[in-house]
Amino acid sequence: MVDDADPAYYVISDLHIGGDEQLGEIDFLDELLAFLERLEATDENAELVINGDLFGLWEVTEIDGPAKFEFLTERYPDLFRQLRATGESIPITLLPGNHDNELTAYEEYAERLAEYNVDLVRSRSITRPVGDRTIWFEHGHQQDPNNRFEDFANPYETPLGYFYNTHVTSRAGRLSDRGRYNWLKDVQAVTPTERVPRWLFSKYFYREMNPLLRYAAIPFLLAFNISVVIAVLAGLDVAGVWTMPVETADAALDRLGLVGEAVHFILVVNSVIAGVILLASIPVYFLLRDVRKTVDRFGAVETDLTVDPDEPYETAAREVFVEHPETAIFCYGHTHRPTINEVDGRLLVNTGTWLKRLHRRDVVTGLLPPVFYPSYQLCVVRIAAEPDGIAVEYEEIVKPSPYTEEVTLTERLLTLGRKPSPALPDRAVVPAEATPFPPNSGERTDE
């Protein structure tokens, strides 16, 4: 049943505002202020829910405790003025995430945020009524073993993710402007973290490497795949299994003049290298396989560094749906992946991120580093009761992709036809359900 008194919920998460030096820049500040101004002017019965990681307090490493709040208000005065103005029109609720978990540890944060009309809920999760049912909100880091807090509201608890962000991400913010262009700060956008070494090598190759060295290496690397095939065929030729048409190939290259000679030289050098690599890879393969079996036997590595992007949250949602059958939607953030999945007739909703996102694309051919295309998918999730059920809609906050400035012509040519085109999920509806719910199932609760 739709009640005119039921609010519509606007949900955002994972803005990660704040951090050392270059991390302190907000690429989306204008878009965020415009969105808050729009909510300030609305006549709609609405509530803004910020579902975790509004601030990047982990990345503010040179200030301790609640003094970080002064740093934030002094650095972003326009943002806090607008929060105060918007909060006079509609409720603003902030649920902490892992990057701003420190908010839960000090009462002073709640008091200071209240001055800007932001209600800080120092809880793991909250629920809100929608029609005859409820929405479950949590940031999602409690389902991630690398960022889970066992002792809630303990400012001294430091999961694995804390060390990564204070020693890697924060350090990158302090060093980023030393590069040929300001790229190192984007390490916070690389997910999963296992991709960081490949991303670093990609940026070194396409941005930091001496251009003469890079352009000299590209022909050899592009031809490497062909050279592997030639090396294999040469081995078959030596073994008498198959005869290579060397004279035909040489004649074809001779007709190309100097270009043919250059191609012939590159293929010969690459084929020798490829042959050596193929020979060396056989014992290395068996060695690595044996090491992996030994590690598994001792149980030295029990979990991956990064959790599955969906499965832990589907499991958590099912548990909530069983324990709280009135729940229609499990809404979370944390993984920066805007998605909607159906779970047991309900919806599992991820609110994405306002940070830059990086999309890996392999090159069309050759032994070259992958290319990481940047994009923005700024979005607001609107959840409201409607006649056909409870609707979830993603609204895109338009911000041009920076790929034309951050992806070189070489990278674009090497990934021709592979440019990503990310899209937000379509509208989804949880249909009305006749199952009776427990008394007071529509009350707001904080857990």
From TrEMBL:
For this record, the Gene Ontology CC terms, alphabetical, are:
membrane
Q: Does the keyword Transmembrane helix apply?
A: yes
Q: What is the lineage of its organism?
A: Archaea, Methanobacteriati, Methanobacteriota, Stenosarchaea group, Halobacteria
Q: Which organism is it from?
A: Natrialba swarupiae
* TM region(s), chain numbering: 212-242, 262-288
An example Gene Ontology molecular-function term: metal ion binding
Q: Where is the Calcineurin-like phosphoesterase domain?
A: 10-229
Gene Ontology biological process: lipid A biosynthetic process
Protein keywords: Cell inner membrane, Cell membrane, Manganese, Membrane, Metal-binding, Transmembrane, Transmembrane helix
Region annotated Disordered sits at 418-447
Q: Does the keyword RNA-binding apply?
A: no
| Gene3D superfamilies, per database record | 3.60.21.10
Q: Which InterPro entries match?
A: Calcineurin-like_PHP, LpxH-like, Metallo-depent_PP-like
Descriptive protein name = Phosphoesterase
